[in-house]
Amino acid sequence: MRVTLERSNLLKSLNHVHRVVERRNTIPILSNVLLNADGASLALKATDLDLEVTEATAAQIDQAGATTVPAHLLYDIVRKLPDGAEVMLATNTDGNSMAVTSGRSSFRLQCLPQSDFPELTAGSFTHTFRMPSTALKGLIDRTQFAISTEETRYYLNGIYLHAIESDGALKLRAVATDGHRLARAELEAPSGAEGMPGIIIPRKTVAELQKLVDDPDIVVTVELSETKIRFTIGSVVLTSKLIDGTFPDYQRVIPSGNDKKLTIDRQSFASAVDRVSTISSERGRAVKLTIADGQLTLTVNNPDSGSATDELAADYDSEPIEIGFNAKYLLDITAQLTGSEAIFMLADAGSPTLVRDTGDENALYVLMPMRV
């Protein structure tokens, strides 16, 4: 194999694929990226056996061929080369090493044969639809913060994506919850999503996807079955296994009878929560909200370091209520809101609270209270 290409093109593609590779691997081939030179492009592929990312980039191919080299090492080398440089990749005759040459810099990397590289056999996909990257990014951004990190409840370690009939229209809905908070976002279902299975996209796949959907002009093709999902985003193809589990009936947790409505300036509220939580020894401490006519008082008590209070004007005309929330969860939710105001629908100190976004009627959040 002998290939010459622009450093910027190679770096961009490596940046997309090398993140999938785990730093510590018991299987050596999984530390490598597969390079396949053919026609007028170099295709790069990396996998951790659950997730696979491939991307092709324009290159001058002097000799077609394929090999695998350590992904993080190649990425670090290319990253440290000067801007505008040309990079030449060439394997030796027996194929067990590859020279990386650019200007006066030269490196030699150990290769493993292409035949050892695992294939994430995709099988057939039952449903295919297309959507703007901004729409997909919106679904992910609104929900990913609520994904559980608790491995025992593995079925909560991802975003639940499904098509659902709502208000007489078919919606594509994303839901994530960790048992303490829940985030739900939806949009009009794209053509082809009808009858799709409800699927759980793993946390790592969601994180990679979030980094890839930053170009607003791209239309993403989504292909899925009950066990796999594939996203084609421009020149990048991401294929992932899905979480094999049943997502709980989240509808039961979304309160419908909360009649106490608190409307507050989002930015002022977030700043006040951030200020009073400084007194906590850790971010998870409860912030007590005391809500009465036209006023919200935030209080934090920490027996080790003292206490803090802050007051805000609020739009509230129901009976007074005291309720506690985890400060970090409040900040996570307010960070997702796009409107200038946040709406809290409350019931009592022990029941879940509903949070709505004045700037996005398709997003909804549920927050469990804490005892204070």
What does this structure look like?
The chain is an alpha+beta fold and 372 residues long. 17% of the residues lie in helices and 44% in strands. A hairpin with a 5-residue loop joins strand 7 (86-91) and strand 8 (97-102). The longest helix has 12 residues, at 7-18. The chain starts with a strand and ends in a 5-residue tail after the last strand.
Quick synopsis:
The protein is α+β, with helices and mostly antiparallel strands and 372 residues long. It has six helices and 25 strands.
User: What proportion of the residues form beta strands (DSSP E)?
Assistant: 35-45%
User: Care to count the β-strands?
Assistant: 25
| Order of strands across the main sheet | 6-2-3-4-17-16-15-10
Nearest-integer average pLDDT: 94
Shape: elongated
Largest sheet, in brief, is:
8 strands, antiparallel
